[in-house]
Amino acid sequence: MSASVPGENTDSTGMDRRAGGMFDSTPWSGVLAAGDSRHASQRIALQSFCSACWLALHLYVRRKVKNVHLAQDLTQSFFERLLVGKSLKLADPARGRFRTFLIQAFEWHLANEFREGRAEKRGGKVQTFPLDFSRHDSLLADDESITADLLFEREWAITLLNLTMERLRTEQAVGDKAEIFDVLKRFLTGEGPQGGYQAVCEQVGMNEPAARMAVSRLRVRYRELLREEIARTVASSQDVDDEIRHLFRAVSVK
Asked: What CA–CA distances, in Å, run from 231 to 15, 22, 27, 52, 81?
């Protein structure tokens, strides 16, 4: 499990971009549009977001439910219901953070499944939102002292950080700088190679001052993109700084 954490210092740069239609493609808008054929693009955006964040909820339920196959079925069924608009009782953007809605809706789903006796009877049906559980079993080798809630919060934070890094790489690829980015991104996360900047100058075709400047610019852009990513999941721009602090606290959990 990897995380990309260039630094916690943030500013307000980039927040105004949210007003330019970005809010229309938030996870909130996708949830509220789920099941409505008039908003196919928002549903697709929600499905893409769920494809990125499902693991946080799966680790949560795996800590609570020891039966592996049952935990997988519960995760699968939750997202299938969410994507057709059947988990909307708690969906209210004005109430705050999307991660809070997600975990509350999941808890409601788990309680409902067990109360109605459906959980133990699952399996065998066609999956409309297939998830690859096979690659993630090793992530539960954590100390048992880490609670389900902490596992969810940590994986949610890692997901947002990695989504941000992917967006930054996509931008660099448009400018034909993907290969340079793949070398320099290690400095963003504090995992630079032995020998520091001098060790990579020849690879990136820069002298050391130029490489340092390039990393500095990438770090600034990363922070801008991170603010945008988080702004999509909170009710107000005023919540972004607090959510960033929460994110870095969560990702530091060992």
From this structure: 8, 9, 11, 17, 25
Which residues, at least 6 apart from 99, have a Cβ–Cβ distance to it below 8 Å? 153, 156, 233
Determine the Cα–Cα distance for residues 152 and 149; give it in Å rounded to an integer: 5
pTM: 0.79
Decide if 1 is inside a domain: no
Q: How large is the greatest C-alpha to C-alpha distance in the chain, in angstroms?
A: 65
Q: What are phi and psi of 190, to 5 degrees?
A: 75, 20
In a domain, 51, yes or no: yes
Count how many Cα atoms sit within 13 Å of the Cα of residue 185 in the half-sphere of its side chain: 21
* Boundaries of domain holding 35: 15-251
Q: Where are the alpha helices (DSSP H) in 4-97?
A: 27-33, 40-64, 68-82
pLDDT at 8: 47
Q: Find out whether 63 and 50 touch, Cβ atoms under 8 Å.
A: no
Angle at 160 between CA 156 and CA 163, to 5 degrees: 135
Please name the residues in contact with 168: beta carbons below 8 A apart, sequence gap of 6 or more.
Answer: 181, 185, 218, 221, 222, 225
Q: For residue 2, is it within any domain? A: no
pLDDT, greater one: 29 or 104? 104
**Residue 69: what residue type?**
H
Indicate the number of domains in the chain: 1
